[in-house]
Amino acid sequence: MSNNETTYCKRMKVAHLLANDSSLLSILQRLDIKLGFGDATVGELCSRYGISEELFLMICNIYSYHEYKPSIGTLGKNDIKSITTYLRASHRYYTTVCFPAIHEGIHTLVKSLDDVSRKLIDKFYDDYDNEIINHFRYEEEVVFPYIEKLTDENRPAETLYSIAQFEENHSNINEKLNDLKNIIAKYLDEQYSSPQRFELLYTIYSVENDLRKHSLIENKLLIPLVEKLEKSHE
User: Fold this and answer.
1) DSSP characters for the chain?
2) pLDDT band at 18 (very low <50, low <70, confident <90, very high)
């Protein structure tokens, strides 16, 4: 698709979006949009829930289309607040839904493994779990509070922080998850093949893809918008 093409539009029915990409259900869940919306269009649903149509469509397009490149030109300060709210909801979704599903899959799988394989997988998952918790904690305790002060126009006259620091230190939260996926898919002995192994891999691939979209929202929407706001305060 072209850079300026928007596949979804506000006149489309929400049900049609979900029929095109069922993964968008998780976006509705994170935005606390209830099911039972009937034949509501995107515009009608966003109006009902007080959500920016432009931002909602950008998030949906980011999740559905690999080549989609959002433009922040139509977004403003209020959208920054909506993005941080969405990202916080995503953190809760990952920690209460996605990661417990991976943990349960690993717990089931390692029961049948030899000691060496079991310890290897446990270590990779524990390392990843620690990394992702620290990543989210940094955003929740440092980055988001800074952005919220900035959008509320209560930024102190002098600050030692800027969004550039977040951008420079924005870690790849998928790297260790990719390593874990490769161990399970490529390097465990064939004797351990089972429906549970395939199911675990499917879950990891799904979470990995969702986290990639999560990072795109931060890199392509949040950071440029905050940089723009910071310049307006100079």
Assistant:
1) --TT--SS-TTSBHHHHHHH-GGGHHHHHHTTPPS--TT-BHHHHHHHHT--HHHHHHHHHHHH-TT----GGG--HHHHHHHHHHHHHHHHHIIIIIHHHHHHHHHHHHTTS-HHHHHHHHHHHHHHHHHHHHHHHHIIIIIHHHHHHHHTT---SS-S--HHHHHHT---TTHHHHHHHHIIIIIS-GGG--HHHHHHHHHHHHHHHHHHHHHHHIIIIIHHHHHHHHHHH-
2) very high
Contact 221, 74 (CB under 8 A): no
Q: For residues 15 and 182, give the distance between their C-alpha atoms in angstroms, rounded to a whole number.
A: 35
For the segment 161-169, the average pLDDT, to the nearest whole number, is 86
Question: Of the candidates 150, 174, 157, which has an alpha carbon nearest to the alpha carbon of residue 227?
Answer: 150
Q: Which of 172, 168, 124 is nearest to 143 (CA)?
A: 168
Rounded to a whole number of angstroms, the distance between the first and last alpha carbons of the chain is 37
- pTM for the model stands at 0.88
- Token readout for 122 is 């446990």
CA distance 128 to 216: 20
* Nearest residue to 86 via CA among 183, 218, 192: 218
d(CA 169, CA 27): 26
pLDDT for 47-83, tens place per residue? 999 999 999 999 999 999 988 988 899 898 889 999 9
* Distance separating alpha carbons of residues 170 and 62, to the nearest angstrom: 19
Measured distance CA(19)–CA(185) in Å, rounded: 30
